[in-house]
Amino acid sequence: MDAFESLIAMLLRHEGYWVTPSYKVNLTKEEKVSIERPSSPRWEIDLLAYKPSTSDLLAIECKSYLDSTGVDFRDGEFRFPTRYKLFTDEKLWRVVRKRLSDQLLKSGTILPKTTIKLCLAIGKRAGKCDLKGMESHFAEQSWKLFQPEWIIKQLEKAAAQGYENDIAFVVAKLLQRTK
């Protein structure tokens, strides 16, 4: 798990989610053919976050892009769509979501009433990113967007809590003390 994924996982744990990193979805040969990726390895979702009190399961893709242009969404679509396959290929997400649900139900990890929501956590947006357009697109698709402002707010909340032995948590506490 990379550092940005670790940060998002910690913040979600503080929100009551049980988080699993790098979750492998075992697509069948037939499913791989149906999504035109017959030689694809197992599909990997950066983070799964499950909240037992609501039976919500978040399938989260993390894109920090902190030292690059950032996540760029314009004219109703992502620039560089191949970086956002689950968000740009409707059939792919439908197949992965179904297999993910079946896999988790079979293992007893989730209940049949569990809702699976696709999410994107971003560390930086491109300067020309159409924020309102991206938010609207995500709302239309019933997806969730964790933006830099949410991350900062959650870090501030975490820093106000008791000590936790987590690098991001410790850094948040140190930064709060310097304000």
Task: Describe the protein's architecture and organization.
The chain has 179 residues and is α/β, with parallel strands linked by helices. It is globular and about 55 Å long. The chain has helices at residues 3-14, 29-34, 85-88, 90-107, 131-141, 148-159, 167-177, and strands at residues 18-25, 43-51, 56-63, 73-74, 77-78, 115-122, 144-146.
Annotation keywords:
5-stranded mixed sheet, alpha/beta, two-stranded antiparallel sheet, 179 residues
Helix and strand layout, with pairings?
Elements: H1 3-14, E1 18-25, H2 29-34, E2 43-51, E3 56-63, E4 73-74, E5 77-78, H3 85-88, H4 90-107, E6 115-122, H5 131-141, E7 144-146, H6 148-159, H7 167-177
Parallel strand pairs: 3-6, 6-7
Antiparallel strand pairs: 1-2, 2-3, 4-5
The main β sheet shows up as: 5 strands, mixed
Strand order in the sheet with the most strands:
1-2-3-6-7
In percent, how much strand structure appears in the residues? 15-25%
- Strand segment count: 7
